[in-house]
Amino acid sequence: xxxxxxxxxxxxxxxxxxxxxxxxxxxxxxxxxxxxxxxxxxxxxxxxxxxxxxxxxxxxxxxxxxxxxxxxxxxxxxxxxxxxxxxxxxxxxxxxxxxxxxxxxxxxxxxxxxxxxxxxxxxxxxxxxxxxxxxxxxxxxxxxxxxxxxxxxxxxxxxxxxxxxxxxxxxxxxxxxxxxxxxxxxxxxxxxxxxxxxxxxxxxx
Length: 205
Fold this sequence. Notes:
Layout: E1 2-4, H1 22-35, H2 48-59, H3 67-70, E2 73-75, E3 85-96, E4 102-112, E5 117-118, H4 120-131, E6 134-135, H5 137-152, E7 156-165, H6 166-169, E8 180-187, H7 188-191, H8 193-204
Parallel strand pairs: 3-6
Antiparallel strand pairs: 1-2, 2-5, 3-4, 4-7, 7-8
Helix pairs in contact: 1-2, 4-5
């Protein structure tokens, strides 16, 4: 048996400011091309503004979706299952909010069901929605776990993200082989060190 929870309307933006038109956004790309010393009118760049705006539509598609809605349909027929549900190596493709440079890696997510479970693809979808916004990794970790806590009300939740930030690997200190790991635990994952260690061992395999 499934249950559907009421959710808030889909998030269209985090700001109430009016959005520029597509043409205005493409003009901004032309301005940046000029800023770096390029000729936005040369043959190789004439279609670049359109391509950039199309790419932004994919990279930042998470602003158009609501994680609460994704987690709203749950299933109660779990026959007493009470052990962890874990998804490992979910792709993370995000952009840092400081430089708008990509950071790429993986997320592992687990929860301990209380009375219901959610389709496993929905957990990956929550990671994707929050990843496809301007982020810092710490905030991304928190948003994912808070969404699962609110949507499923499990006995505990765990998230680990391991990512390489291009704002660190291709600029600044130029350390391309450094990855950043963030974790957060709630409920039984926070209070039970053995359970926490089990999650981390499974996530790192």
